[in-house]
């Protein structure tokens, strides 16, 4: 199935605007994606027609809201190929999911145990593990890089019988490399460790099959894949989720409350305390429908075509350094770069004057940024509505920015 980006753009009215007297080129998709009209319509329809709390009421609106909410859970199950909706927990996003897993780790970790992560992880996949290790006396061990990618030899050397959890991003939000999490999960399981996958940058861009990956946990954020903010999914194998204690307590997740103790509902509801983000879940369901109609394999193929087109053009700019794999075939649609002598914030501001929206900073990956020997970087990230014309505008804007600053130095 081919992907027509120009046709897709018509579903995103926000892209049809002028920024600083220039047509908008939105290349900050790793931070958050824009929302198609069908997602906006789903949110509006819920609030206009079905607004009610879920699971608790027997009136018509409550039943309709509950049906839509749980239908979205089934869509999420199908999207990642979980065995059952019991394995699909709605969260606020990837950060929440990783925090829940790290809390579970606190039930298991003991002094001298180890948690294995990589130097490229987002802070959301570092700090929860720092806290879990601090509380339990376990050791947090980092895997480092080779040629802009995960050093698999280093990983295998550091993966031992003491390793209880391995937690890695499937796609780096800075380097753009795609980590072989299926292979790593097999290695982790051989040592008796749980495999945790941060799918924030992979689930929006490629087909995900958690059974094929054989990961124990997989997290994703809706807002990075066309859905509203504040909604995400934590997948966990049913037998593992049954071992986990709830993180939050209160309404919705209880079965029965006695004066001195309580019992919990079955999966997945035992983890979903309080009134959930109903509209967000419904919006996520609409986004998953939209992506599934396009086809995740088609999306991945198209983005690889964009990277193959733009990466050599960026590499050809004198004084521009691209981080991560230099081979386009090994690079996802996230490209972090720096220009000699220019601060990334100045670069991002100058690109904004040309209508090109990119990110600048440490990208919530300070250990990686420090490891690379830099203070920050600019980052362009692509999605289904970006075109080769967008790529050309990025390159032109970078060259114009470079010439402008060189003329003022």
TrEMBL record:
The entry's keywords:
Lyase, Pyridoxal phosphate, Transferase
Instruction: Give the source's domain of life in one word.
Output: Bacteria
Task: Supply the Gene3D superfamilies for this chain.
Answer: Aspartate Aminotransferase, domain 1 (3.90.1150.10), Type I PLP-dependent aspartate aminotransferase-like (Major domain) (3.40.640.10)
UniProt EC number: 2.8.1.7
Q: Which GO terms describe its molecular function?
A: cysteine desulfurase activity; selenocysteine lyase activity
Coiled-coil ranges from the UniProt annotation:
none
All residue ranges annotated as the Aminotransferase class V domain in the record: 25-394
Q: Which PROSITE patterns match?
A: AA_TRANSFER_CLASS_5
The cofactors required by this protein are: pyridoxal 5'-phosphate
| Known catalytic reactions | (sulfur carrier)-H + L-cysteine = (sulfur carrier)-SH + L-alanine
Q: Which Pfam families match?
A: Aminotran_5 (PF00266)
Q: Which PANTHER family match?
A: CYSTEINE DESULFURASE, CYSTEINE DESULFURASE 1, CHLOROPLASTIC
> Record's family?
Belongs to the class-V pyridoxal-phosphate-dependent aminotransferase family. Csd subfamily.
What does the function comment of this entry state? Catalyzes the removal of elemental sulfur and selenium atoms from L-cysteine, L-cystine, L-selenocysteine, and L-selenocystine to produce L-alanine.
Q: What is this protein called?
A: Cysteine desulfurase
Could you tell me which species this protein originates from? Answer: Streptococcus loxodontisalivarius
